[in-house]
Amino acid sequence: MTDATHAPNIDNVVETCPDCNEREVLIYPKFERLWHWSQAASIMILMFTGLGMNGFHSLISFELAVRLHTLVALALLLLWVFATFWLFTTGTYKVFLPRVVGLFKVARFYAYGVFKGEHHPYQKSLTQRLNPLQALAYSALKTVIFPLVWGSGLVYLTYNFWETLPNAPFLLEVVANVHLAVAWFVAGFVILHIYLLTIGHSFREGVRPMIRGTETVALTPEQEAYLERHETWRLVK
Amino acid sequence: MRYLGLMPAVLACALGGAMAPAVWAQDAPQISESTADHSKFEALQKDFASGPEVTEACLSCHTEAATQVKHSVHWTWEFDNPTTGQTLGKSHVLNSFCGNVASNEARCTSCHVGYGWDDMDQPPPAQDAAVDCLVCHDTSGQYTKLATGAGHPPMAAKGKTITGADAWVVDLKEAAQSVGAPGRENCGGCHFYGGGGDNVKHGDLSSALYHPTVDVDVHMAEDGANFTCSSCHHSDKHVFAGSRYDVHATDPEGTGQPGMVRQDVATCESCHGDTPHDMLTVQGVKLNDHTDRVACQTCHIPSFARGGVATKTRWDWSTAGKMDEHGHPMHLSEYTQGNGKELHTYLATKGDFEYGEDVVPHYAWFNGQVEYTTADMTIDPTGIVEVNKIAGSSEDGRSRIWPFKRMEGRQAYDAGLNHLVYSNVWGPTTDTAFWTNFDWGKAIEAGMKAAGAEYSGEYGFVDTYMYWPITHMVAPSEDAVACEECHSSDGRLANLAGFYMPGSQPFSIGGILGILVFVAMAGGVLLHTTLRIIARGGKGGTTHD
After folding, report:
1. CA-CA to B427 of 20 to 30 Å: which in B72, B231, B434, B496?
2. Where are the domains of chain A?
3. What is the ipTM of this complex?
4. What InterPro entries does the entry give (chain B) (predicted)?
5. Could you report the per-residue pLDDT of B26-55, keeping only the tens digit for each?
6. Is A117 left (phi over 0), alpha (psi -120 to 50) or beta?
């Protein structure tokens, strides 16, 4: 069994799953965790060096900032090539497909319910660990925001290959502005991303799945039986 | 084959004890690099009474030398700019230092590569013997020219030399027998002292280059590349590469063939190529990306007037002429330069001076064209007049950002015609020279008359800028201008327009939009946190009950 089976209306299934059992199961394989943390570290370095190049701090020289920014960005792009390959060959990409069912409930929770002490309305399942709002956010990030950053970054980096175009200095300014604007958006996303970990049991529990790879999810009796029999290594307890 | 290389060493070990050391080349008497020892030449075995006599002796063998020299700008002091059509050269142009040659000949022509040019109205003396071979070729070190002798050497210990030292009796015989290729002392004797003193004019050419340390000049340091001037300023038929009037501001040709060194131009690229940085590193690739838009000098000469010799940065002629209570010309020496020498900050003859050392250059787009404000051009005296204009822009496709010394001046002009003026400053025996009589009216009238220029009779003083391309005193690579010196919001190139420089505009439209979005997101998080704390009584909104 893969960890990414396409499951329509999965929300309803879980929410109407009176016989489900919550178990801690290995959800994030090693590659996914490596990807996440490499990406996290890369984005931190990119933000730090980007801020340095723009004069927000002078902790490192411009030259070192450019070197790190360029090399880390290229390394991250390579990682993304691998990650994209992995997402599509394993089918995991389906986790990120935006879906409407349950979206309003989650949005309502963050806008209202959380202040009332309500439980999070989304129950993670074996096949869908992302709530509809997360899926929407990540898919937008992967298909719009990140491509804008790395796309503008690559065009920016390769200025000398297109500097003979008419209006090249103006185009460079446009590219640089897009890169800057979207980079700030990514920085905002990082803040939001970290903040959302504080909603739930605790920050540490929020981070733990991405370290250990395990997450408490609702298992149907069939899933549980399958795991107990064939993939016991994925069950923590 | 590869054992062969070791053989001399092995032989040396084996035979070293047995054979006399004198056998070995390094211990033998030095073999002259030249095929001619001039001290053995019969024509030079005599006591010369004058410079021209030496030249005659030189020409008795080097029959074409005088003709070659006479076709050089060193001789003609005239340069027809092919691009602007202007007739320039020392004999014509005005500057913001001592002003002009006309009417000040014997003083200014002390640095002419000849003897006896005492009238700018006339071409240099016609006879071949008037060429001064020794000023460039003496290697005895004791040949010099008298400061006020129209190019002649001092034959008595009286007066000053062109470098401002007390004059001595020059031994022409010793000088004639010593001749060789020009060294830095030869070129420096005039070029380091332009404008009337050490480093006054250029800023990047001073006596510090006689024996510079590596950090002052990597090329000329004796423990560096140990170049002479002519290592770069290659000459062909006594005409040297390199011009300040028609500058080779960009050299996309580079070295030409791979690994080749081009010797017909005195550009950095002719040796270093146009991709001199390591292509295998990110910064090397990025730095090579700069070479089409930024001159090598811009990064590699972080400041000029290094090495302890200051350059004059401002010269205000308008205050000249002050006398003390005894009626003697006033003078002040309130600047001490790096090597300890005190410099005049006021002279009644010349006015007020300011100096600078380790001066950060002025930067401008430069395509090599320089247009001079000649005395027939109308100026706007209400603004700052540019004595020479640097042409170029980011858009012309051939300009690069260059460093300049921007000389600030305040000098006389014709207030009736709005022209810059020639003035007669030197002339100990005249009643017109300003340095003798302190009368601007007479000095300008005499200068204009000597130059054959129209003068209204009214004069005033106008603020001027004059630009001197900086290209010497290349620093070691580790001292090159750091990226952030330019790539920042208030960097060295902040006054330049027409290009986008990464890092210089963090608050551009995109930057501000991005920051607003970021602040909105971060603000939302803060608001959310606050609401959670209020609503849940400090429990932070966790789902624990």
Report:
1. B72
2. 19-234
3. 0.90
4. Multihaem_cyt_sf (IPR036280), Octahem_Cyt_c (IPR024673)
5. 555 678 888 999 999 999 999 999 999 999
6. left
- What is the pTM assigned to this prediction? 0.88
Three-state SS at A91: coil
| pLDDT score, position B199 | 97
Radius of gyration over every alpha carbon of chain A, rounded to an integer in angstroms: 21
Averaged over B70-96, what is the pLDDT?
94
Which among A63, A119, A191 has the least Cβ separation from residue B522?
Answer: A191
Kindly determine whether residue B544 and residue A62, on different chains, have CB atoms separated by under 8 Å: no
CB B282 within 8 A of CB A70: yes
pLDDT value at residue B21: 43
**Please, is B121 exposed, middle or buried when counting C-beta atoms within 10 Å of its C-beta (0-12, 13-18, 19+)?**
exposed
**Do residues B88 and B367 touch, judged by C-beta distance below 8 A?**
no
In order of A6, A103, A190, the CA distances from A234 in angstroms are 20, 29, 29
Hey, which residues 333-392 in chain B have their CB within 8 Å of chain A? none
Q: Is the pLDDT of residue B537 over 80?
A: no
Residues near A154 by beta carbon (within 8 Å), at least 6 away in sequence: A77
Instruction: Tell whether B530 is within 8 A of chain A (Cβ).
Output: no
Whether the pLDDT of residue B20 is over 80: the answer is: no
DSSP state of B536: T
B531 touches chain A (CB under 8 A): yes
For tokens 């080097």, what's the residue? B62
B283 touches chain A (CB under 8 A): yes
Q: A219 with A21: CB under 8 angstroms?
A: yes
Distance from CA of A42 to the nearest CA of B (A): 17
